[in-house]
Structure formats: structure tokens, C-alpha cells
Predict the 3D structure of the following.
Amino acid sequence: MGDLTDRLAQGLPAGAVVVDPDVTAAYSRDMAGFCAAGVPAVVVFPETVEQVQHVMRVATELRVPVVPQGARTGLSGAANAVDGCVVLSLVKLNRILEIDPVNRIAVVEPGVVNAELSRTVEQLGLSYPPDPSSWESCTIGGNIGTGAGGLCCVKYGVTSEYVLGLDVVLADGRLLSTGRRTAKGVAGYDLTRLFVGSEGTLGVVVRAVLALRPAPAPQLALAAEFPSADAAGAAVCEVMARGLTPSLMELMDAVSVRAVNELGQMGLPESTQALLLVAFDGPDRVGELARVAELCRAAGATEVVPAEDQAESDLLLAARRLALPALDRLGTTMIDDVAVPRSRLAEMLNGVAAIAERHGLTIGVVSHAGDGNTHPIVIFDAEDEDQAVRAQRSFDDIMALGLELGGTITGEHGVGLLKRDWLARELGPVALELQRQLKGVFDPLGILNPGKMV
């Protein structure tokens, strides 16, 4: 290890190479449960692109694995260390390099925090729409690595739709530039999209050109209570079928509603089996909410509460923000991430309820209903070995259910270690082999984030 640390230190600032085991242990994993993490040999904190290149050249020469990391807020084990690796923390490459209001782009380093970018461009009347729930701490590089989403995806889309170009340090230290700064561009293979969602297995993102949008108006929201998941699912389908484009459409199941009720004293009736939250930020927000209210009542809603202003909207949406903290109070949580066609959302919720009953566990579901992305949250006692086993089995059953319904094993959290085996089932042998061949082209020695994804 001495040769490794000495070589790394030659091209990095003082203090940027850390071998203290108490520190390196803190950088061994992200926030995913049920994922193994190795013991890193060293953690490095480069501050420039050239320093990242130096790290990769040393790693290639010494055949040492490298695990790129951002803020470690991920939920799939994609940032977990492997034994003897270099953990490459990118949090100090954290500059917003350029904001161009005319071309509506921002150029940033990977360590920029999502919320910092959003607040900075907001001052210019612009927005960066992707808003993961961890946006106050997650980094742009991590968002790109996992293909992150958020609450606004139903209208504005996910991270991949906002990444125009990248600078990427390859496994051997070469610097690759992909994409463009222009609004349009189709020259060559789309390598930019290839890196988005690749979880650091193909290269290390060190700079990103991101698309910006005009800042939207404040959201106006409503809450609709339903007696069943089927009724709520029918309302979601009607909203989308009528051509409406909400800026947010979230669905909570009965377990989540009860947990939020207990934590936040929201006053929701115990009979509520599903709570649908819908918001609009367009010029006809009041009219669009009124149409949604009619559709919800027609689908069987027992109560529809529209907000009259932004303050009331924030109060209604507080229930969704409280969901995870409320479920966390019930025990250890394992957060899943399965997306299904919107038309099969109710089947997903009902299927998860049946899985919970079969395994004798509590599982709450919160969903980005507008794009069919569900987050089943398995609750168990981590000290109880039997419950931990049942939690893992229920997780697998949820994965299988999502695929059976024509969905995908991850809508926004990524594959990492947690879902690697399930990725093979979703892709099939031909696609899996092609992905492995692509990995070999970019990383022939297999040193970049080994063991993740493929």
C-alpha cells in the first residue's frame, strides 16, 4: 500500500490522500442496506481534472480498483468500496463554472450540490428541474451516475434529459469530451447518454454541460382521498389520458398515510386507503386543478381538497415530504424503486400489499404516480434475523412483481450492488453481453467500480 499512497501523493495536494482507517471506513458505503462494502486502501480528494487524471493513471499502472463517489446518498450500493480500492471522492470538484442565460446552459463540476445549482440559476429566472429527494445534499455527479429523478419528472423528465455534454476521465487517465453546448446536435454515437446512469463503471465525470429551463410559476396543488388503490389508480389514468400535464403527481398507500397521520397529525381519515397529490405550475393552474378534482370524484374519491394559494399547496404537499421520516420511525427501512406502466400502478400497489401480508411485514408505498415510479419501503427489525431474511425475500418478490407488470427494476436509484442480479433478468442474455462488451471497451482492466451493474 505504501507504493500506492506514495504515488498518489506525488500528484495531489497535501492532505488529499487519506489512509486513516477511521476516515476510510466512513467512505466505504452509500445509504443502501443489504449491500456488502469492502475496506478501501485509501480515500483521495482531488481538486482538479488533472488530479483526477493522475489518480486514474496511477491506478491503471498498479492495477488498483477505483470507486468514484459523490455525497454517498445513493440507495443501491453503487458507491460502496471494494477491498483494497482507491475511493475517489469528487466532492472538492464543486465549482459552478458557467451559467449562460442565452443558451440556457450551466457548466458545473461533479461535486456541485443539486440544491446549490438550483438556487443559483433561480436568481436568473431559470431552473434546473431534476430534484431528487436528497437534493439538499446529493451532487450533480452522483445524479448523473445514477440517472436520478425526482418529484417533478412527470412534467420535466429525469437527469438524462438535461445532460448535454460531459468531460470524462477514462480508466487510463485520458480525458474524453462528449456531447455539445448547442440546443441540437446529433454528431456521432450518443456517448453522453451512455455515461448517464453508468454508475462510474465506464469513466469518471469531471465536468457537465447541463440544460436549463425558464423558472416555472409556483405550484398549486390538491389532495384527493380514495377508498382503494384501484380508485386512485383509475384517477391517475384519467388525468394522463385527458392530456393534462401536472408538475407533480404523487400517490401514497394506506400504510404511508397512517404513518404520516401519526407523525404529522394531518387529520386524514383512517378510512383513507390512498392519497393522491396533484400540482400544476402552468398559466391555467386553477382550471387544471378543477378538472383534476372532477376526474378524482368521478373515479371514487371520498374527499378532494384543492389549495387556494401556494401556502395551502405547501401544507398539502407536506404529507408527501413526511412519508419517509414517518415510515423510518416504524423500524429499519429498505427502500425499493420499481417503475411500472401508469396503467398498472394499482396492480403494483395491491401486489405489494399482498407481498407484505405473505411475509408478515409492514411495507409502505409512495409513488411518483405520474411516471409510474413506485417506492415500496420494507420495514423490519434489523436485530431480528428472521425478519431481515423475510425483508430480503419481500424485496425480491417486489422486483419480480415489477417485471411481471411490464416494468423495470429501477426508475431512478440505479442498479449498483443491490439489483445487479435482477438487472440480468430484466436485460436478457443478448443485452447483458453487449453491456459487458461496452464495459470492456472503456475499462479493459476492469478497475472502474468493479462488481457494480454488469
